[in-house]
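FAQ: What does the model actually see?

It sees only this:
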Amino acid sequence: METVTRIKENWFNQRVSEKNYWGSAFFTSLIVTISCLYLVNFNNFQDLFPVSFELLFTQHQYYRAWTALLAHADFNHLLSNLFLFIPLSYFLMSYFGTWVFPFFGFIVAGLVNILTLFFYDPQVRLIGLSGLVYWMGAVSFTLYFLIDGPRKKSSRFATVLFLTLILFVPDKYNPEVSYLAHFFGFLLGIVSGVFLFSKNKNKFKTKEVVEVTVENFDEDLDSQKSVSDNLNEEHNHLP
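And it is asked to produce this:
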C-alpha cells in the first residue's frame, strides 16, 4: 500500500479581480502619456527626465533614477517595452498585489538604473522602462517556478527557460541599448522573487488543493492472480 499526494490547484488557480485590467491600463496610459510629452519636449521634459552618473551623484538629482523610467527615445522603444509591460503588470497585480507592482517594482527599477550608471561614463544618459520590464519578467518566472503546483519542477523550469530565451535574450546587438540595465533588472528580479516567495511561502500554501490517493499493490496482485487461475481452469476444461 502506498499513499500518493498530488497538488491539483495552487496559488495561480484562484480567481482574480477584473479591477486589475484597469490598473494595468492606468499605468500603461501614464507611461504612454509621459513618453509622448517627452518626445515632443513638452515643458523641457527632455532635460528633466534622463539620468546620468553626473546628474545623479554630482548634481544630486536623485529623482532622475525614477523619472528616466517613464521616458523613451522613440515610439519603437516605447512599444517594445509595452509589449511585455502590459501582460506582466496585469499578472503581477492580479496574483501578488499592488505592493509588489507597481510600488516594489518601481523602487527596484530605480535602483537598477543607479547600479547600471556605475559602469558607464558620467555623461551617458539612461532612459526607458526596460530595466523594470526585465525585473517584472524575472520575478514572475521565479515565483511561478518556486510555487508548487500540478506540474513538476522540471517541467516548470523548462517553461521558464524557454520563455526567458524567447522573450528576454536579444537576437542581435544594438549599441544604443543598455544590456547592463537588462541584466541587472533580471538579476534583481530573481533575487526579489526568492525574497517574496520566502516571505509568503505559508500564504501561498493556503491556496493548494491536494489530492491524496492510496494504491494497494497487494490487492492488485491478488486480483491478477485470481484472473490467471480462472483462465487456467477454463483452459483445463476445454475439450
